Fold each of these.
Amino acid sequence: MAGQDLKALADRAATEIAAAADEAALEASRVRYLGRKEGALSEATKKLASLPPPERPAYGAAVNDAKIRIEKALEAREAALRDAALARELGQEREDLSLPPRRVRLGRLHPISQTMREVSRIFATLGFETVEGPEIEWDYYNFEALNIPPGHPAREKWQTLWISNPLGDDPSRPILGRTHTSPMQVRIMEERRPPIRVVIPGRCYRYEATDAIRESIFFQYEGLAIDEKLTMADLKGTLYAFARQVFGSDRKIRFRVDYFPFTEPSAEIAFDCFACEGKDPNCHVCGGDGWIEAAGCGMVHPDVLRRVGYDPTRYQGFAFGGGIERIAMLKTGAPDIRLFYQNDIRYLEQF
Ligand code: DAH
């Protein structure tokens, strides 16, 4: 093949390549012209050795030119085919803007968590700091330090879930699921010196059958204030202020004498029944009583103060403890405490 023939070959190849319809056609052209075994150019290269030396440089250069032109043509066509394929693909893809969007479902706090936060918030406005404590408790804090030694009849009031002690089953140091948040009174007083103003929301456990207003796992809030000149009037004022913030001024509050071993005197707070407002003698919420017991309270017993090393002639204090679920029920009108824990999203998402 002479130099001109090589140029003609390259022209033909370029025309053919530019017209290649797809990748397969392009590949066939590559093999035909540049293929190592039978490609037209390798045939030409093989001829190089048989030429007389003076002719070799010019011929070699011509082969090289042809090769470069064919390679460029291949590259250009390959890019063109790729662009066309991409354009076709993009042309077919369409965003369907008429599709309804997927709803983003934002979660929210459980109504009992909401109530706990509200209780904390309201007591914060009255100067009380929120503190938390252990749910698994020593008998000592749950009972003994609160003037309820082993064998004391008041223990029957708190049906207890006892736990076998993982720290060696030492029967002299029994542990339990705390039956109320009151043990935190003692823990806080052991840790701090007066003045103290704390509120402790938290989970409690009782070995008890459930009904419309009782659960075996439930939440309480505990309040404790210790200072030098606190009286029953401070206790009443604090709880009235709290009740008014939670329920508004309409809800009636009953404050009357009660007994708890760790307060003296002790009192009980009740709200008028939200379900029947005292009108239904068969009411399944209040049992026809018209009142729902909401909290126990009183002045911290001098023996409790002495046990943590406080001088009761110098310090006095008041304490109170009530059920979080009862507040949530009063606020939402929920007729049954169990609704909060059945985890039916249709019920819970209303709040
Ligand atoms: N812990 C008591 C209970 O669960 C309620 C209670 C009564 C708490 C009197 C107090 C208190 O702080 O002073 O039944």
Amino acid sequence: MRKSLTQFLVEQQRLENAMPAQLRLLIEVVARACKVIGHTINKGAITGLLGSMNRENIQGEVQKQLDVISNDILLEANEWGGHLAALASEEMEAIHPIPYRLPKGEYLLVYDPIDGSSNIDVNGVVGTIFSVLKAPENASGRDVTEADFLQPGSRQVAAGYAIYGPQTLLVLSVGTGVYAFSLDREMGSWVQTAERMTIPPSTREFAISMANQRFWNPGVASYIGDLVAGKDGPRGADFNMRWMGSMVGDVHRVLTRGGVFLYPSDSRANMRSGKLRLMYEANPIAFLVEQAGGLATDGGARRIMDIVPDGLHQRVGMVLGSADEVSKVIEYQKPAQALAAP
Ligand code: AHM
Ligand code: MG
């Protein structure tokens, strides 16, 4: 019989000493909430919940009904368990401390309830991304503040995503490699279907939105130009392009068979700091990518998980995936004279 998520977590707790009981509960609760979100997405128009809310979130993006519902599903599932000190999400402007009437725990949960929400109405792949930090020790006995969340990604104790596609999967790391669990709908349980996922260092596949080409910096433009030139260009090999409009979907492909994913900052005023959000998109994905042997940078040489956030909704440019290609992107970013030097 395949291993369940619960068995995996118990083993992590016992054997690897990587899993305090509160963290185990947290992951089980998040995984259960993802089942509910997946079920709701899967029902599609039957629930009447497709389409937008006709209002914007803190990012200035129009919220889909499912963005809001999924945010509440995760919030309500996690609030009462006694494992969290506070939560924060893409869809909430401010942090949500655990109310006084409920027991408080030692963890902070940061999440993007639906990543790639423009895919919802077209039955494309979407996901839920989450990151787990520890509340600072001095936070016990006082109110948790946004400043308590502003820790670099290297301090994450766990991260993962659920991907709602042809299969519903949970991809998870508690710092001991990357594991995947498939949702068995009849049984209603997560069963382990991949262990120690690794990203091959080399690849012939890239993911970037070509729609933004005219705004790219020269390094990104010449890197992608050389990939697209294929066999006739300096790389001497053909590359394939995939773009799903959902980072979770693109990252899952990278984790499964390698690839490089780029969402770089660019010359537009609202894109100078990138598009993806550091705390609930870039950091958890970077944690998984590094745990799988890949690299995750801001597009230059800066490791995503080294960035000390200065705000909950901070954005960042992102290049991640197969180590050889991410390193190449960094080389292309160096000034031309440095590249020319012996
Ligand atoms: P979201 O969380 O609001 O859906 O935004 C994140 C998504 C990523 O999943 C995806 O890579 C990117 O935004 C696509 O954005 P765009 O279509 O604007 O290029
Ligand atoms: Mg998102």
Amino acid sequence: MHEHVSNYLDQYNVTETARRFLSQAQRMYVDGTWVEAETGETMEVYEPSTATLLTHIPSGTVGDVDRAVAAARSAFEDGDWARMTPRDRERIMHRIANLIDDNAQTIAEIETVDNGKAIIGCLDADVGGSVETLHYMAGWPTKIEGAIRSVSTPGQHFAYTLKEPVGVVGAIVPWNWPFNMAMWKIAAPLAAGCTIVIKPAQQTSLSLLYFMELCEQAGLPKGVLNVVTGRGSSVGQHLAAHPGVAKVSFTGSTEVGRTVGKAAMEHLAHVTLELGGKSPMVVFEDADIERVVNATQASVFFNAGQVCSAGSRMYVHEAVYDDVVQAVADRAQAMKLAPGLDPKSEMGPVISQQQFESIGNYLQLGEQEGAEVVCGGHTVDGPGYFIQPTVFGRTDNSMRIVQEEIFGPVLVAQSFANEDEAVRLANDNEYGLAASVFTSDVSRAHRVVPRIQAGTVWVNTHDLIESCMPFGGYKNSGIGKDLGPEQLDHFLETKTVWIEL
Ligand code: NAD
């Protein structure tokens, strides 16, 4: 650990447990054992607010994935998990959720140091949301059921369906919500009775590794959940392509999602892809401006804009365009940029040098494309990967900053004249993850919602997410759903049974 990171931890008084965990040599978790990569190789991990070395993680190999899949297969076919009653599965899952709750501060500190995000939002959304997801999915095992069918085939028959776990799940998660996304990927398959091999993003593996200590305490049998850290191009690719994996569950960029989907289809695995977005916020002339401003802060400026469903494209009716854009820019400028551990921080740094440069390039591109810089527009001089919250005005849909996912605290805004134009502009994008509509006219809301091509549409808010509500994209934003009973279904096979009496 670089002394700048150590000083940072001292400055904000992190818990003893978090400090112990962050200082120890990191290992992966395979078949109930803490292991190094088979080659002993490691990768560097950087702390984003100081841009200095935090720790090393094992650089897993193809062989490590093979071992993890074999462990998961064995746990699925004949381990304690396979024999466990649904009620006992529920109890273990609730126990894990309670342990997260008991250790929320430690997890939030580890996540904040690893990812850079502001700790207040992390405690509430990342950790609190994860507890809720595990409890919600823990309610399902005793309620998974098939159906008796009234068949008419001549003779006497008893016919029914059974719901069975699909098998070993290969899960791959991104770095923007490392802990929360991992829980989205873990909770539903555990409820279904599957076993899992999960690969965290190489930038942010630590909270998941700490979580495995809690799973051990909760009594999760060996082999049920295996964590292999390392690169996407080796560990991730091999996991998606592994014939022992029955279901691939991926969250990340659209580009990598395509590769992962192809690899999964080669061995005909089931696949869910939760991908990128460039979600529109459509603001009509009768909108409550305060709600628009709050929603913008809670989506495109939350988590430094590294939010898949961020409302990063705003379309505002021409009658209120100037007022709305100014109000949003005022709020953005008032946000406190500070290292994530600072309890007053409203926006931490972005994840990495690479992301910092990529967003910086988009900020320059916006000016080159002729957009008006209403606020921000620059990266912040170091240390750390901080970006000014930025609003580009007077944009149009031909600009790359309007069409492409920037994945930073950058809002692009333009005006429209009527409802049809608003819908056309909102749908004119390759992505279809989410959208929001702001209006006080309930008829208009109901008219517009079905016309928007997106997996989630919010009215008069943006980015509300809860475990009982399915979340997933249309168009290039993905295939399938996370959360809700819809996600559980992705981890279940239906067996048809006929008995001739
Ligand atoms: P990414 O696609 O670069 O990486 C995601 C994961 O895939 C990482 O674990 C990475 O190591 C792994 N990976 C990389 N190459 C791989 C390969 N060839 N085969 C298998 N795995 C590979 O995405 P990211 O930069 O970590 O995350 C940001 C992206 O995730 C954004 O596009 C964002 O919109 C998206 N995202 C979507 C959702 C959603 O629910 N739709 C949620 C969060 C993030």
